[in-house]
Amino acid sequence: MAGSMPKLVFDIETSALPLENFDDAQQEYLLRELNRIPDEAQRAVRHGEILQLFNLWPMTAQVVCIAMLNVETSRGQVLFIADDCEEQADQTPVEFIPCVDEAQLLAAFWDVARHYEGVVTFNGRGFDVPFIYLRSALLNTPISRKDWLGYRFQTEPHCDLADQLTFYSSGRDGAGRRFNLDFYCKAFGIDSPKSHGVSGLDVNRLLAEGRYRDIAQYCLRDVQATLLLYQIWRERLGGIK
Predict the structure, then answer these.
(1) Structural contact between residues 62 and 135, judged by C-beta atoms closer than 8 angstroms
(2) Of the four, 6, 19, 62, 104, which is 20 to 30 A from 54 by CA?
């Protein structure tokens, strides 16, 4: 991934930490709203929903995979947590690198990231970047690029396609309505990452089953789709103010 400071497109996958990782006060705080639901069945449903939301919060989840590609060369790496830390023997444009834990994964990511001035994401300003910033801070992992949140109304150093394709609209109505990556991919004729039968909702289960490479492959498909969407945006919409 050498070069003269090219752009990096990346995506992360996260997995909820076990509820047992938190003390009684933390658990009470996280599940407090359940006390307001009198019906036992409804309470159980909401309990499951809250546990699913753990995946989205950096205080209750960990990063288990980061896929990244050089925008210009499409070469890159996929870092993923795995019990089996044997690296791939074959040489391909994308290297799959197993990591023993989240701290090693994040350290390896920031080592790569320092070589890139710009970053491309889909909803990275709202999720991926703040998530890895906070997880890195919690683990005391040095952050090599602290400017990636950037100014929302500029595409340097961070081009967030979720912002660009909605023209910075925050609503759900009108021409600026936000769609998910799957919808945009299908609309623009790009192979959707979810077309292979795996989605982000499957990460917890795949991790529990030890299917680490499946998580890595899904995350890579997300990044490949984001890269193709970025190329379309740059050719057809880039520069619109």
Answers:
(1) yes
(2) 104
pLDDT digits (tens, 9 = 90+) for 102-126: 999 999 999 999 999 899 999 999 9
Compute the radius of gyration of the chain from its Cα atoms: 19
Segment (H or E) for 80: strand 76-81
pLDDT digits (tens, 9 = 90+) for 195-239: 887 888 899 999 999 999 999 999 999 999 999 999 999 999 988
Contact 104, 138 (CB under 8 A): no
User: Which amino acid is it at 219?
Assistant: C
- Residue whose structure tokens are 């790009």: 190
Token pair 């979720």 in the structure block, residue: 162
The packing angle between helices 129-138 and 102-113, to 10°, is 120
Cα–Cα distance for residue pair 56/172, rounded to 1 Å: 21
Residues contacting 127, CB < 8 A, separation 6+: 56
Residue 137 host element (H or E): helix 129-138
